[in-house]
Design goal:
This protein has helices spanning about 1-10, 15-25, 30-35, 45-55, 105-120, 135-150, 170, 200-205, 230-255, 260-265, 275-280, 290-300, 320-325, 330-335, 340-345, 345-360; strands at about 75-85, 85-90, 95, 105, 125-130, 135, 155-165, 180, 185-190, 270-275, 285, 310-315, 365. It is α/β, with parallel strands linked by helices and about 375 residues long. Strands 1, 5, 7, 8, 9, 10, 11 and 12 form an eight-stranded mixed beta sheet that branches. A three-stranded mixed beta sheet has the order 2-4-3. A two-stranded antiparallel ribbon has the order 6-13. β7, α7 (about 170) and β8 form a beta-alpha-beta unit. It starts with a helix and ends in a 7-residue tail after the last strand.
C-alpha cells in the first residue's frame, strides 16, 4: 500500500489507476511511458545526456567514489558505524572474504568501534546504520551494551535503519537516543526462537550408528544433534528462551520509554514496517541516513547549517590488511595466491563453504526471517 501510494503520488495519478495498470502486467517500456510511469525511453548515453540537460550549462559527472569526500577540516565530527548482515559473535564480515561473501555484524568489531568513537574527543555524536535481520542473542546484547556505554560517555547515538532492522537488529537499536527508519523498513520482530534437530535415526537409515558420550550433567547434551531431549532438557531450554525474551522486552521498554505491558502487546515476534513502527513508538522519525545525520547534529547542538565531517569507525581495512587478517599470514606470503584462487573456484570447494555457512548459522536466536520483496 505504501509503495503504491508513493508511486501514484510521484506520478500524479490515483492509486486505483496505478493498481489497475499493474494488475494487467507485464507491460512494454512504451506502454509504461504512455501510462506515465516512464518519462523518456533510451539507453545509458541518452540518460546521461538527459541528466546533463536537466542540470544545466556547465554540468559534469562526478565519480561516486569522489562524491562527498571533502574532509571539511576543522568541522565538527559525526562518527559513522555500520552494521550489516546477521548479528554474530566475534568479528564482522564485509563480504570481501574470498571464502565467503556473506555480510555480518560482529559484536567484537562493533563494540570496539563504539569504544573508539566514544573516546575520540572530536566526535560529537554517532550515527549507527543497522541493516540486519538479527542473529545471536549474546552478540546483540554485547552491541546493546556498547551503545549504552557510548551514551554514558556523552555521545548521542542515532540509529539509521536500512531495509530491515528486525529481531536482534532491533535489539541493538532499542536504547539509542533516536531511531530513524524508512517507511518500508522491516523492523520489530521482538521475539526469540530456538529448537533442536535430531539426526541420529536419520543417519541410522544410511548405516551410521551414533552414540553420545556426555559428561557434566544432563543438560550438557542439549545441543547434540544425536541425542533427543529429555523432559528436563526441554524445560531447561524453554526457560533459557524465556529469559532472553524477558531481557529483550525489558530492553525495549526501558530504551523506548514504553510500559512493559505495551511492549508485550506489540512484541510476540511480529514485524512492522517503519511507518507502523513510528505509530506504535518503536521508531521516532521516518527518513534515511541524511535525516539521521540531521538529528545527530541537533542532539550534538551543532548548527543545522554547519558542515560536519563524517568519520567511519572502524577504519576500513586495506586489501592487503584484509588478506593478512583472513589467512593470518605476512604480506610476503599473501602475495603468491594464484593456486589458492584456482582452488576457490572449484565446485567441491564452493559446496564445502556452503555447508560451513549453514553450520555457522546455528546461533540465530534473535534472527527474523525476512520475506524477499520482488
Amino acid at each position: 500500500d505504501v509503495s503504491v501510494s508513493h508511486i501514484a503520488q510521484d506520478n500524479d495519478m490515483s492509486n486505483d489507476a496505478l493498481l489497475g495498470f499493474l494488475g494487467q502486467a507485464p507491460h512494454s517500456a512504451e506502454q509504461a511511458k504512455e501510462f506515465g510511469l516512464i518519462d523518456k525511453l533510451g539507453y545509458l548515453a541518452d540518460a546521461k545526456d538527459y541528466a546533463k540537460e536537466k542540470a544545466g550549462d556547465g554540468a559534469s559527472f562526478q565519480d561516486l567514489m569522489e562524491y562527498g569526500t571533502k574532509l571539511n577540516i576543522g568541522s565538527p565530527v559525526i562518527a559513522f558505524i555500520g552494521g550489516q548482515g546477521a548479528v554474530v559473535e566475534g568479528g564482522s564480515s564485509d563480504g570481501s572474504n574470498p571464502f565467503s561473501n556473506s555480510l555480518s555484524m560482529g559484536s567484537d568489531t562493533l563494540s570496539r568501534a563504539f569504544a573508539k568513537a566514544a573516546k575520540d574527543k572530536s566526535v560529537k555524536a554517532i550515527v549507527f546504520r543497522v541493516n540486519s535481520p538479527g542473529g545471536s542473542a549474546a552478540a546483540s546484547d554485547q552491541i546493546w551494551d556498547a551503545v549504552n556505554r557510548a551514551k554514558d560517555a556523552g555521545k548521542p547515538v542515532v540509529i539509521s535503519m536500512g531495509q530491515y532492522a528486525a529481531s536482534g537488529g532491533y535489539y541493538v537499536a532499542a536504547n539509542a537516543d533516536k531511531i530513524v527508519a524508512m517507511p518500508m523498513t522491516i523492523t520489530g520482530s521482538i521475539g526469540v526462537y530456538g529448537g533442536h534437530i535430531v539426526l541420529r535415526d536419520t543417519l541410522g537409515k544410511i548405516g551410521y550408528n551414533i552414540e553420545t558420550i556426555n559428561a557434566g550433567g544432563e543438560y550438557g547434551a542439549v545441543y547434540s544433534a544425536f541425542e533427543p531431549w529429555s523432559d528436563n532438557n526441554r524445560e531447561g531450554y524453554r526457560r533459557s528462551m524465556a529469559n532472553i525474551y524477558e531481557d529483550f522486552t525489558t530492553r525495549v521498554a526501558d530504551g523506548r520509554d514504553i510500559p512493559l505491558e505495551r511492549v508485550l502487546e506489540i512484541a510476540k515476534g511480529r514485524v512492522w514496517t517503519g511507518e507502523q513502527a513510528k505509530e506504535i513508538g518503536l521508531v521516532d522519525e521516518l527518513g534515511g541516513f541524511m535525516k539521521a545525520l540531521e538529528i545527530a547534529k541537533e542532539l550534538a547542538e551543532i548548527d543545522p547549517e554547519e558542515k560536519v565531517r563524517i568519520k567511519t569507525f572502524p577504519r576500513p581495512l586495506t586489501t592487503q590488511e584484509q588478506i593478512e587478517q583472513i589467512f593470518n599470514v605476512t604480506a610476503q606470503t599473501a602475495a603468491s595466491m594464484e593456486e589458492l584462487q584456482h582452488l576457490i573456484q572449484t565446485p567441491e570447494f564452493q559446496a564445502l563453504m556452503k555447508a560451513r555457512t549453514a553450520l555457522d548459522a546455528k546461533n540465530t536466536a534473535l534472527q527474523a526471517h525476512i520475506p524477499e520483496i520482488k
